[in-house]
């Protein structure tokens, strides 16, 4: 892995873990918002109006945070309005790259070879991690946002006036409940699996794994007798949970050592995740080959041999 220091790419191996062995996830650096008329959003500056053809999304198929953004591009029918590039699954010495490989879609705008080159183009003195997703503005030649939680909120409504598919995944009447669910699920599960996987002390791992399974146990009972997490409608909270559940048995159970139980041991959660997976346009956003290879081969501090295990059998019918 590596990161940018004053616009220069440097190798970092463990700058993400603090002295107590706990994962320290830095704040995303670009926090502007696309809005219908270019007015400023909740953070960052204004000037990013919702215009078809103006923005481009860079993602990795492996990454659960980037997956949220590709899902919302599909759910809101933004495929012809917002372009898409897909990185190679391997995140090694150069970080995310657009090296040739199955499923890779290179950068059509600048021919970037790596994602860090995009960050330097946006800010020649950028210091920080180089993460996906990246939402790029072709007009101002900069990054609008590299925070998936914000990107899906803007995709949810910003383009409604210029032809997006109708549907509100964050209705005002439910927003407080959605935010509370998101916070709990982020801390215990979405980020919890990463805290377990990247822990370098037993106590940090123990605490994270406890949080992961407390959250899964709670979700199993919360979803009993319900179709969706919040109210009786499908919301953003469901999709944010989905991208972690999808990867659970394939990578978090083995590679991140979240191995008390698998998703398949939770009948209600499994049926719920399979229901989301079966929604139109979801399956094409899923690439288990990218997912398994990315985790097992990129994090060599966790899996030094880079061996990708043969199992477990997939629980998402037809998934490849
Ligand atoms: N808060 C960010 C986190 C994104 C993130 O951590 N992405 C990972 C891939 S799963 C990444 O690109 N990591 C590269 C690095 O940290 O160097 C978001 O949700 O958008």
Number of strands: 6
**Kindly, what is the distance between the CA atoms of the first and last residues, rounded to a whole number of angstroms?**
27 Å
Indicate the CATH class of the largest domain. Answer: Alpha Beta
The CATH superfamily of the largest domain is known as Glutaredoxin
Estimate what percentage of residues fall within beta strands: 5-15%
CATH topology of the largest domain: Glutaredoxin
* DSSP helical segment count: 9
Main sheet?
4 strands, mixed
Task: Please tell me the total number of domains.
Answer: 2
Which overall shape is indicated by the principal axes computed on the Cα atoms? Answer: globular
Task: Please explain how this structure is put together.
The protein is α+β, with helices and mostly antiparallel strands and 320 residues long. It folds into two domains: 2-162, Glutaredoxin (3-Layer(aba) Sandwich); 172-279, Glutathione S-transferase Yfyf (Class Pi), Chain A, domain 2, CATH 1.20.1050. Helices cover 35% and strands 8% of the residues. It is built from nine helices and six strands, in the order βββαβαββααααααα. It has helices spanning 64-75, 115-122, 148-157, 175-190, 192-198, 202-222, 236-252, 267-277, 288-298, and strands at residues 2-5, 8-11, 55-59, 82-86, 134-137, 142-145. The strands form two sheets. The chain has a four-stranded mixed sheet with strand order 4-3-5-6, with helices on both faces. Strand 3, helix 1 (64-75) and strand 4 (82-86) form a beta-alpha-beta unit. It is globular. It starts with a strand and ends in a 22-residue tail after the last helix. Bound molecules: glutathione. Glutathione (GSH) is lined by residues 1, 28, 63, 65, 95, 129-133, 146-149. This is Glutathione S-transferase. Residues 171-298 form the GST C-terminal domain.
């Amino acid at each position: 892995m590596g990161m940018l220091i004053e616009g220069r790419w440097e190798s970092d191996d463990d700058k993400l873990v603090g002295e107590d062995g706990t994962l320290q996830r830095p704040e995303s650096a670009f926090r502007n918002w696309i809005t219908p008329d270019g007015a400023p959003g909740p953070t960052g500056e204004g000037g990013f109006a919702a215009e078809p053809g103006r923005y481009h999304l860079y993602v990795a198929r492996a990454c659960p945070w980037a997956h949220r953004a590709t899902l919302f591009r599909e759910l809101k029918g933004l495929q012809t309005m917002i372009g898409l590039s897909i990185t190679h699954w391997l995140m090694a010495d150069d970080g995310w790259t657009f090296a040739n490989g199955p499923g890779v879609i290179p950068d059509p705008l600048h021919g970037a070879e790596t994602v860090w080159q995009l960050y330097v183009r946006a800010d020649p003195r950028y210091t920080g991690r180089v993460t996906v997703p990246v939402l790029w503005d072709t007009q101002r030649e900069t990054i609008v946002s590299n925070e998936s939680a914000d990107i899906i909120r803007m995709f949810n409504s910003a383009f409604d006036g210029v032809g997006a598919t109708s549907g509100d995944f964050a209705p005002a009447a439910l927003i407080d409940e959605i935010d509370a669910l998101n916070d709990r699920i982020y801390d215990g599960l979405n980020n919890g699996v990463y805290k377990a996987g990247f822990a370098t002390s037993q106590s940090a791992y123990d605490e994270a794994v406890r949080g992961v399974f407390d959250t899964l146990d709670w979700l199993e009972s919360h979803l009993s007798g319900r179709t969706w997490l919040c109210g009786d409608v499908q919301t953003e909270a469901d999709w944010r949970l989905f991208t972690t559940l999808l990867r659970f048995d394939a990578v978090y159970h083995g590679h991140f050592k979240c191995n008390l139980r698998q998703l398949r041991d939770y009948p209600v959660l499994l049926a719920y995740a399979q229901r989301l997976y079966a929604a139109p346009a979801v399956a094409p956003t899923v690439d288990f080959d990218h997912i398994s290879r990315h985790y097992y081969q990129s994090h060599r501090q966790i899996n030094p041999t880079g061996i990708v295990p043969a199992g477990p059998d997939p629980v998402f019918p037809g998934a490849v």
